[in-house]
Amino acid sequence: MKIGRAEVEHVARLARLALDEEELDALTAQMDAILGYVDQLGNLNTEGIVPTAHAVPMENAFRPDEVLVGLGEEKALQNAPAAEGPCFRVPKVIE
């Protein structure tokens, strides 16, 4: 067994889950099966495989960076409920 009932109880307690005895038994078996499968994946030969390899060719979908004209202070503050100089004025939240 890769995970014991005590560990499942601990995880359930951390997640604030109230599990009965049957649920704990079922989860212990399920988590053990999952961890066993993950352990099998560790035995695969990944020699020569790029870590970010995809099944289909991928292209970068990002557009090139271009410098554009910004809004400017006047336009940015146009719909502000309150402004003070070149800044937005917001209510005090810390007392």
Shape: flat
Structural class: mainly alpha
Q: What fraction, in percent, of the residue positions are helical?
A: 25-40%
Would you list the SSEs in sequence order as H and E?
Answer: HHHEE
Radius of gyration computed on alpha carbons = 28 Å
In DSSP terms (H or I, runs of 4 or more residues), the helix count works out at 3
Q: Based on the coordinates given, report the CATH architecture of the domain at 5-41.
A: Orthogonal Bundle
| Unreliable stretches | none
Strands ordered across the widest β-sheet: 1-2
Strand tally, please?
2
- What is the fold named in CATH at topology level of the domain at 5-41? Histone, subunit A
CATH class of the domain at 5-41: Mainly Alpha
* Overall pLDDT score: 89
For the terminal residues, how far apart are their CA atoms?
54 Å
β-strand amount: under 5%
Q: Largest sheet at a glance?
A: 2 strands, antiparallel
Describe, in plain words, how this protein is organized in 3D.
The chain has 95 residues and is mainly alpha-helical. The chain has a domain at 5-41: Histone, subunit A (Orthogonal Bundle), CATH 1.10.20. 37% of the residues lie in helices and 4% in strands. It has helices at residues 5-14, 21-41, 73-76, and strands spanning 83-84, 87-88. The protein is flat, with a radius of gyration of 28 Å. The two termini are 54 Å apart. The mean pLDDT is 89.
